[in-house]
Amino acid sequence: MKVVSLLGSPRKNGNSAVVADRFCAAAEKLGAKVEKFVLNELDFQGCQGCMACKTKLDHCVLEDDLTPVLAAVGQADVLVMASPIYYWDITSQMKAFLDRTFSYLVPDFMTNSVKTRLAPGKKLALILVQGNPDPKSFPDIFPKFDYFFKMAGFVDNRLIQALGVNAPGEAANQEDVMRLADKTAEELCKA
After folding, report:
1. What mean pLDDT is predicted for residues 35-59?
2. DSSP run (H or E) holding 129
3. Looking at CB atoms within 10 Å, which of 6, 23, 117, 157 has the fewest?
């Protein structure tokens, strides 16, 4: 079992990283191999809309620090994406990664019943943390991810939220969130 963890926060040890690290620790206890990428530490561009991945190549034409990340996600069984909510959505770092996943789609994805080059059966844990304590805030984020990743062949997409957290590391004090991270890892990473 291979788990790839993508941390989208500009804070290296922020709340989304705390929750993602808890998930990954639980996955490792189950025997999973975990690879972690801190997107803010990488030098990469967003999608350039060049369409080379649809006309000339079966992968993104850009060669930068995101190239091995895209390859690792392609080989992963479980993808962990962790981001704080900034301005009503995921961070720009995570959004730039997502835009580059356009290269995963087959050239005729609009009409082809198989939309993606990724092997089917992958799983997603989306970790979102926010300062706002209201669980009804930002209800549109997970459905967008769920829709896209199901289209890309993912079979089990889960949401883990930490609400009302601001200071770095504060999410570690939310035992219900930490237990949910453990439980979700157990369910997604069981062989």
Report:
1. 97
2. strand 123-130
3. 117
